[in-house]
Amino acid sequence: MESASILTDAEIIELAKAVTPPADGIISRTIFQDSRIKAVLFGFGSGQELSEHTASKPAIMHFLEGEADVTVGQRNVLATAGTWVHMAAGLPHSIVAKAPVIMLLLLLK
Hints:
Elements: E1 26-33, E2 37-44, E3 49-53, E4 59-65, E5 67-72, E6 75-80, E7 84-87, E8 93-97, E9 101-108
Antiparallel strand pairs: 1-2, 2-9, 3-8, 4-7, 4-9, 5-6, 5-8
């Protein structure tokens, strides 16, 4: 995991260029955090996965690049650039990258 880099209130970044998916693995970088939200940028190498898990808070996944099989509860979707997924707290979900993926995860506090 890369070290966290917290944005200032006046900084702007180009998300798709802020992380490079590794050839074999998953990288994550916290780009913002305050009392209401935590923004984490992920890069998944092709074939990498996050097995089924839950989050204690509501979350939003926004896929910026690539293609991934996403399961949220009982629903399955092929996520591509522009796919946006909202999840309630405690909802099981998983991700399998079919190609290199860049995804922004917003954890709502």
